[in-house]
Amino acid sequence: MSEPSVLTDPEHLLPCRERSCDVVGAFLVDARGWVLLQERDEHAPVAAEQWGIVGGHVDPGEERPAAMRRELLEETGLDLPEDSLTLWYDGHHTPETKAHAGLTNHWQVWVGRVDVTDEDVVCGEGRQIVFVDPARSDELDLAESTAWFLPRFLASEEYRAMLG
What we know:
Number of helices: 3
CATH superfamily: Nucleoside Triphosphate Pyrophosphohydrolase
Number of strands: 7
């Protein structure tokens, strides 16, 4: 009997480490220019006790924009207007922790300037979800994907435009 392919798993029965994954995330920027990040707790299946992007996996049959809005609502309690976020990144970024060569993660990262504060955010997952001063982000233990995306976002034209 041959083993099932690790490259396709339409029902998402395998952990992301063992399959290719579609992932969505959002960087929200407040009036100070601080970026919303999630401190994951010890129960997180990926990047436990590290700081990460608000977001998660796309469910089977789900469109990526809908997944991003679902994840944002589930994790933060925020239900933002449709036009408040812009697609900033759409491509592959795959961690080195994949079980087999050839597995990939396809990311979509959405960004937006929001008029909310930490008090408006309901932590639905993890230890805390708060706006972080970008000048202090190097003091945080960032998840692998966040360590890759955050500096690129902070150096982007999109982020600079949000600062006014």
